[in-house]
Amino acid sequence: MKLDPAQRQILSLLQKDSTLSTQQMADKVGLSPSPCWRRVKELEESGLIKGYVALLDRQKLGLTTCVWVRVKLKKHSAEVLDRFEAVVKGCDEVVECYELLGETDCLLKLYLPNLEAFSAFMHNFLLKIPEVDVTHSSVALREIKNETALPI
Prior knowledge:
By secondary structure, this protein is an alpha+beta fold. It has helices at 5-16, 22-29, 33-45, 78-89, 115-124, and strands at residues 65-73, 94-99, 106-112, 132-139. The protein has 2 domains: 5-45, Orthogonal Bundle (Arc Repressor Mutant, subunit A), CATH 1.10.10.10; 65-139, 2-Layer Sandwich (Alpha-Beta Plaits). Helix 1 (5-16) packs across helix 3 (33-45) and helix 2 crosses helix 3 (33-45). It comes from Azoarcus taiwanensis.
């Protein structure tokens, strides 16, 4: 979808604050409210805007530990990956999961309260998945940048 400058501005504004009213957005973009509202609706209907969410402070929720886990699967087949994906999608601690090329098959990002919770996750969940062969984990010491806004 080719975006015009107003659509780009609208998307940038919504990524920073999706609670803006149509009037506030229109004022910032330089449109009247009706055309601005129509553009937002077009972006929603096209699927470019997938939804609206509240971004929570994980530290205040007690999720102070961020762990990245690289997973190597026992076999490379569609069935194995499908089974692994289904299990991982049902796990709340896994906030991101990517299939990768190279030595690692999948990369998981976890938010947990502490290292004890990570140990429990590994022993009670991840290592019990039959498709998992080898894992390597990295604990984040501190968060330098974590943005949700995409470059437009």
